[in-house]
User: What shape does this take?
Amino acid sequence: MSDGTGGGTAPAECPPQTGLRAAPEPESTEAPASEESPQSAVLFRANCPHCRSSFELDAAALRLAVGGSSRTTFYSFTCPSCDEAVRKPAGERIVELLTGGGVPTMRLTGR
Ligand SMILES: [Zn+2]
Assistant: This one.
């Protein structure tokens, strides 16, 4: 006698198949190129304590030094009128303004 059982029905070892598939992630749509403000157009007003002349400087003419505290944070430039080196303290707003305008920033890392 041969019975049909014993191998006819497979034990439920098969992993339950879910209908979920690894859907390919939709590629992020390319962001439209927004107009970036040209850095060369940014001018900063400054005045010289030596010759007391006021002028406008572009980002390349300024240097920003950011120290650990507000006392050691300043910006410097060379007066185009009298050629004197000018150094002025820079507050947070000025730092943001200068860095946002593309002024080269130098970090002073002191202990
Ligand atoms: Zn000057």
Remarks:
- The two ends are 92 Å apart (CA to CA).
